Amino acid sequence: MPEKRVVPVISSLTDLESKLSGYLNTDTPLALLLDYDGTLVALADNPGSTILTANMKSLLNRLAAHPQIFLAIISGRGLRNVQSCLAIQGITYAGNHGLEIESGDGTRHDYELPVEIQKHYTAIVRELTEKLQRNGAWVEDKKLSLTYHYRDTPPALVDELKNAARQIIESHGFRANQAHMAVEAKPPVNWNKGEAALLILKNQFGINWSQKIKVIFAGDDTTDEDAMRLLQGSGISFRVSADPDLETYADFRLARQSVVEDLLTWINNVYTK
Fold first, then answer.
1. pLDDT tens figures, 103-139
2. CB atoms within 10 A of CB 255
3. What distance, in Å, lies between the first and last C-alpha atoms of the chain?
């Protein structure tokens, strides 16, 4: 059974080259699955303020164009939002933690929420907006899931607003997940980034995908742990975190967000030799 543990840390390109030497080769296709916020871009006070560095964008475009590399972005953002952030054509995008997936050829897979759950979602958005959208906190409505942001809230009010948000979310039967200075409301369905990752891999490479390809996943948040858990033993995953005591389902910890560029550089170097 997969288990969380403290894992080796990677802090540079040199670390990647030494600790993962031989994992990748040009003869074996790679499925590269990546989170967006906190992974490809540094976290920002407002999701609309994130900036993809020029080097990161260049690396992603090169990897996406390589015939041996399959690139998919699995984000908590809404599908169209994350697509507009990256603007890379021909790759697979999963939004709302995998509830909506669109492949490079436009094929869609949408998790249909029952009508009753949709009603509760609408009620959560309304109640959070009316009662708790204040003191710098605000509601990001992604139509299938939402995020209650409190990064700009005065520290003395954070616990009060965070706890009140969790209570409202859970009172409607939704799951309240802790994120970076935010609480995420996710519908009570058996679907997450991990299930989305497995579906994407199966659709692209077949039911025996693990025998055909190498898999790399990288993410920075608790919601990414679902993918790390389900991929444990079938690929290599990386959790972005500065916490040396963090327990994770990932295989390695990336010491900071900027090391993700080293990860992509390492992959690019292997496949462009």
1. 999 999 998 889 999 999 999 999 999 999 999 999 9
2. 17
3. 37
Q: Token match 């995020």: residue? A: 147
Percent of the chain with pLDDT over 90: 90
**pTM score of the predicted model:** 0.90
Q: What is the mean pLDDT of residues 24-31?
A: 96
Give CA separation, 226 vs 6, 80, 132, 169, 219, in Å. 17, 22, 29, 20, 10
